[in-house]
């Protein structure tokens, strides 16, 4: 089979891009020809061929969404299956499937909620994605893959997609790279953490990711665990909440460390340096970082919402609390920071669960089965 993976932008640090590249590598290893077609690529992996489709107007929002699908046709003509990953690249699959009568598979990763954004441009972008995808799903899409049961329910309830058209294929985790034997001493030394209990957040500092709720919980945690440190790693994108002002207001500067963007090669060491991983996101289509943290044997504290309960098993591999409930978030962190035996037990169970459920090899084989379905 010859498969073209289409994603308009290949950003570094994107969970969606990680998903696509991990699947593509394994599909190619299984004896298939694969390539990625995009408009711009920040990452340049040597293992997978990348076609960058350039054209006039590629920097103009919305306009480029209409041009890219047609400019991609020359490349997509040479493939048996078009596999698109997000909006607006789904349009490229629609057009190619219509022109060349090729099967089109779309992976639905979901869209971040509109309400938390302060930027009206970002709000408009999220609304545009939803409306565009709603109509695109009705035109030349043979199968839809989702990365969680939560997203499958959303497709059925909000997009009115027939259930038999949807296949749930969980994301995977590289369990060799993310494992309990990784050493985090270099990170503890670099940030002066010493032997303090450490709570880690790792992810984009976007409003819906909920870092502000963790920061609001810090004073409550410090009352019970005074030596605790809170390491926050992640890139700034769009309208990040003013977290630094909040830290100053709450007088928790000494306990809070902002690491900024964390390079991919040291991500496992960050997980290894912490005692508890905290991910208070208000929306997740899957939740790749909690899965990676659990693969490293770390218990997770998060909000009980969206797809998170599929990734973190409450009271077994972590603690899930009511969304936006800062007091409950603090209580969960305190209970784990004070109980090493419970942390270790949860970490062991977390590792076992990740090994059982979240495998890139398994995800790639299930994806290949979808390709066989659409070709037949």
Task: Explain this structure.
With 376 residues, the protein is an alpha/beta fold. It has 2 domains: 2-172 and 359-375, Glycogen Phosphorylase B (Rossmann fold, 3-Layer(aba) Sandwich), CATH 3.40.50; 185-357, Rossmann fold. The protein contains 15 helices and 15 strands. The strands form 3 sheets. Strands 5-3-1-6-7-8-9 form a 7-stranded parallel sheet. A 6-stranded parallel sheet has the order 12-11-10-13-14-15, sandwiched between helices. Strand 14 (300-303), helix 12 (308-311) and strand 15 form a beta-alpha-beta unit. The two termini are 12 Å apart.
Summarize the structure.
By secondary structure, the protein is of the alpha/beta class.
The mean pLDDT is 93
Tell me the β content: 15-25%
Write the element-wise H/E pattern from the N-terminal end onward: EEHEEEHHEHEHEHEHEHEHEHEHEHEHHH
Q: What is the CATH third-level topology name of the largest domain?
A: Rossmann fold
Largest sheet: 7 strands, parallel
Class computed from helices, strands and strand pairing: alpha/beta
CATH top level label of the largest domain: Alpha Beta
Shape category: globular
């Amino acid at each position: 089979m010859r498969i073209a993976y289409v994603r308009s932008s290949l950003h570094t640090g994107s969970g969606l891009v990680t998903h696509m590249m991990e699947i593509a590598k394994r599909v190619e290893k299984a004896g298939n020809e694969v390539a990625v077609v995009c408009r711009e690529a920040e990452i340049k992996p040597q293992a997978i061929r990348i076609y960058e489709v350039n054209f006039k107007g590629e920097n103009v929002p919305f306009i480029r969404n209409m041009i890219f699908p047609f400019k991609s046709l020359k490349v997509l003509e040479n493939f048996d299956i078009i596999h698109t990953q997000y909006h607006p690249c789904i349009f490229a699959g629609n057009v190619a499937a219509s022109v060349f009568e090729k099967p089109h598979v779309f992976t639905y990763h979901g869209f971040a909620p509109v309400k938390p954004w302060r930027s009206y441009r970002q709000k408009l972008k999220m609304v545009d994605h939803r409306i565009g995808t709603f109509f695109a799903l009705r035109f030349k899409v043979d199968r839809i893959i989702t990365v969680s049961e939560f997203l499958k329910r959303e497709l059925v309830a909000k997009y009115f997609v027939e259930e038999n058209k949807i296949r749930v294929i969980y994301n995977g985790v590289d369990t060799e790279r993310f494992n309990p034997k990784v050493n985090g001493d270099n990170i503890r030394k670099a940030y002066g953490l010493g032997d303090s209990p450490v709570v880690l957040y790792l992810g984009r500092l976007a409003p819906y990711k909920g870092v502000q709720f963790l920061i609001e919980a810090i004073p409550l945690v410090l009352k019970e665990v005074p030596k605790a440190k809170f390491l926050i790693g992640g890139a700034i994108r769009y309208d990040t909440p003013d977290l630094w002002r909040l830290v100053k207001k709450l007088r928790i500067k000494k306990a809070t460390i902002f690491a900024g963007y964390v390079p991919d090669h040291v991500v496992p060491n960050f997980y290894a340096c912490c005692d508890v991983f905290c991910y208070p996101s208000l929306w997740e289509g899957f939740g790749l970082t909690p899965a990676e943290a659990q693969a490293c044997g770390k218990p997770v504290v998060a909000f009980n919402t969206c797809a998170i309960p599929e990734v973190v098993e409450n009271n077994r591999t972590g603690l899930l609390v009511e969304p936006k409930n800062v007091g409950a978030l603090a209580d969960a962190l305190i209970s784990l920071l004070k109980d090493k035996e419970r942390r270790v037990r949860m970490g062991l169970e977390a590792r076992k669960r990740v090994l059982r459920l979240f495998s890139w090899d398994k995800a790639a084989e299930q994806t290949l089965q979808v390709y066989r379905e659409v070709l037949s």
